[in-house]
Amino acid sequence: MTPTGTYRVQVRPDFPLKSTAELADYLADLGVSHLYTAPLLTAAPGSEHGYDVVDHARVNPAIGGEEGRLALNKALEAAGLGLVVDIVPNHAGVAVPAANPSWWDVLKNGTDSAYASWYDIDFDRGRILIPVLADDPAALDELRVEDGELRYYDKRYPIADGTGEGTPREVHDRQHYELVNWTRGDTDLTYRRFFAITDLAGLRVEDPAVFEATHAEVLRWVTEGSVQGIRVDHPDGLRDPGQYFERLRDAAPEAWLVVEKILEPGESLPAWPIAGTTGYDVMAEVCGVFVDGSTEAFFDTLDHHLTGGDRTWQDLVHETKLHVATTMLAAELGRMARLVPEIESAPRALAELAACFPVYRSYLPDGSRHLARARSEAGRRRPALIPDLDALTGRLRNPDDELAIRFQQFTGAVMAKGVEDTAFYRWTRFTARNEVGNDPAKFGVSTDEFHECAGERGRTWPEAMTSLSTHDTKRSEDVRARLAVLAELPGDWTELVRRWVRINPLPDPSLAHLVWQAAVGAWPISRERLHAYAVKAAREAAASTTWTRPDEGFETALRAMVDRIYDDPALHDEVARFAATITAPGWSNSLGQKLVQLTMPGVPDVYQGSELWDLSLVDPDNRRPVDFAARRELLARLDDGWLPPVDETGAAKLLVTSRALRLRRRRPELFDGYRPVFAEGRLGEHVLAFDRGGAVTVATRLPVGLSRHGGWQDTTLSLRGNTWTEVLTNTVYGGDRLAVADLLDTYPVALLVKES
Question: pLDDT confidence of 736, banded at 50, 70, 90?
Answer without folding.
Answer: confident
